[in-house]
């Protein structure tokens, strides 16, 4: 694949704008096509980011044989059907998180991708930024000794609007699916899969959670204390504690630009880890690398991580009585 990798973007909202902007930072890729159900939106996006084509039909873009990979940035509840549409038209997919609404959907997408030998990855862009890479390196070096517990929160204040993406159950709304996924994902890459968990939440009149508090326990006694909220602006930091010290991921931890390392109650080192653009470029380059190497999953964010993440989310949903109608 000597030519540039040709990307399509499906769903042209806020995140798609950031993604398209960062795509322009890559020498490996080009924005080839964009699709929205709204033709005016598609034309405006095409002009803004200089894509070669626009579509007012997801189906038509999925059939475009010139496209190598499609980034799906539609609302949560459409991720499954949009991903399956692309895979069934033999397109590799990067699907914005959460990749599905439940484990059944995630398993079906992975099965389809593997069957067709196509690349598929969940769009957890924060896995690839410099701060996350540095965190993993520090933990591998046992910079804070044996891990003991993790505390992470993510909260922002959203005005209640039953029709908005955040509060609309039909769009996969709620704090857990929208932002709680980030503390949970951090717990997975640091402590692994919990052996037991508990959760409590406040449920809105639209049937989604506006606040969720989670406590995870692990085989060797480690703990994770996690929170998500659309009721308040919270610190949105993460602290990983070990037997010899702790690591602070500064706000907002999921795309932190600064990590502090404390050992024996003293600040040992501060890492300034700025990222390019909006931070999506690292995820983009990982997908480009995998496609060039004919890989169907990324070793940094393999299918198993998405399966584990959704399995844990499903357990939390069960604890707080949160259900979504599945399109699968």
From TrEMBL:
Residues 5-122 form the Gfo/Idh/MocA-like oxidoreductase N-terminal domain. Pfam families: GFO_IDH_MocA, GFO_IDH_MocA_C3. SUPFAM superfamilies: Glyceraldehyde-3-phosphate dehydrogenase-like, C-terminal domain (SSF55347), NAD(P)-binding Rossmann-fold domains (SSF51735). The keyword Oxidoreductase applies. Residues 134-247 form the GFO/IDH/MocA-like oxidoreductase domain. Keywords: Oxidoreductase. GO terms for molecular function: nucleotide binding; oxidoreductase activity. Belongs to the Gfo/Idh/MocA family. PANTHER family: OXIDOREDUCTASES, TRANS-1,2-DIHYDROBENZENE-1,2-DIOL DEHYDROGENASE. This is Gfo/Idh/MocA family oxidoreductase. It comes from Ancylomarina euxinus.
């Amino acid at each position: 694949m000597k030519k540039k990798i040709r990307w399509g973007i499906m769903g042209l909202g806020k995140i798609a704008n950031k993604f398209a902007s960062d795509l322009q930072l890559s020498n490996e890729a080009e924005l080839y096509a964009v699709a929205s159900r709204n033709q005016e939106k598609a034309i405006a996006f095409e002009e803004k980011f200089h894509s070669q084509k626009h579509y007012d039909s997801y189906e038509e873009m999925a059939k475009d044989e010139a496209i190598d990979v499609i980034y799906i940035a539609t609302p949560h509840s459409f991720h499954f059907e949009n991903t399956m549409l692309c895979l069934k038209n033999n397109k590799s997919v990067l699907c914005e998180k959460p990749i599905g609404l439940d484990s059944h959907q995630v398993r079906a997408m992975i099965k389809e991708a593997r069957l067709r030998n196509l690349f598929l990855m969940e769009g957890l862009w924060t896995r690839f930024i410099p701060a996350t890479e540095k965190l993993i390196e520090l933990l591998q070096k046992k910079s804070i000794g044996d891990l003991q517990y993790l505390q992470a929160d993510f909260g922002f204040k959203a005005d209640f609007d039953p029709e908005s993406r955040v509060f609309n159950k039909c769009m996969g709304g709620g704090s857990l699916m929208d932002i709680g996924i980030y503390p949970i994902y951090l717990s997975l890459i640091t402590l692994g899969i919990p052996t037991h968990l508990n959760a409590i939440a406040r449920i809105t009149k639209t049937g989604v959670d506006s606040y969720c508090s989670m406590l995870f326990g692990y085989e060797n006694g480690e703990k994770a204390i996690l929170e998500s909220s659309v009721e308040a602006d919270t610190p949105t930091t993460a602290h990983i504690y070990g037997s010899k010290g702790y690591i602070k991921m500064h706000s907002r931890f999921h795309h932190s630009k600064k990590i502090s390392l404390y050992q024996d109650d003293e600040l040992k080192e501060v890492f300034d880890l700025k990222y390019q653009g909006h931070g999506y470029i690292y995820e983009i380059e990982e997908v480009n690398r995998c496609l060039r190497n004919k890989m169907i999953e990324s070793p940094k964010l393999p299918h198993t991580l998405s399966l584990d993440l959704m399995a844990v989310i499903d357990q939390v949903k069960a604890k707080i009585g949160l259900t979504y109608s599945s399109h699968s």
